[in-house]
Design brief:
The protein is of the alpha/beta class. It is built from 2 helices and 3 strands; from the N terminus they run βαβαβ. It has a 3-stranded parallel beta sheet, with helices on both faces.
Length: 72
């Protein structure tokens, strides 16, 4: 017997990314790039490591993208 039903589409939740970048223009550009990439969502973007560390537990990210040259 051949089924005529539509195949079930499996949709995974997007990867939740936190971005840490001190330069606003770069932070905004990377946020747009992440959000424009299928399967990814920037759930938060911070301008300092201190701010990110104080809030990161609440965001529950799958990945963190950070500027290794951040001051501090």
């Amino acid at each position: 017997m051949i089924s005529t039903a539509e195949p079930t589409k499996i949709t995974a939740s997007p990867m939740r990314v936190i971005l840490i970048e001190d330069l606003r223009d770069i932070r905004e550009g990377l946020t747009a790039l992440i959000n424009g990439t299928p399967g990814f969502k920037c759930v938060a973007a911070y301008g300092s490591m201190e701010t990110a560390l104080s809030r990161i537990e609440n965001e529950r990210p799958d990945a963190i993208l950070t500027d290794l040259g951040l001051p501090g």
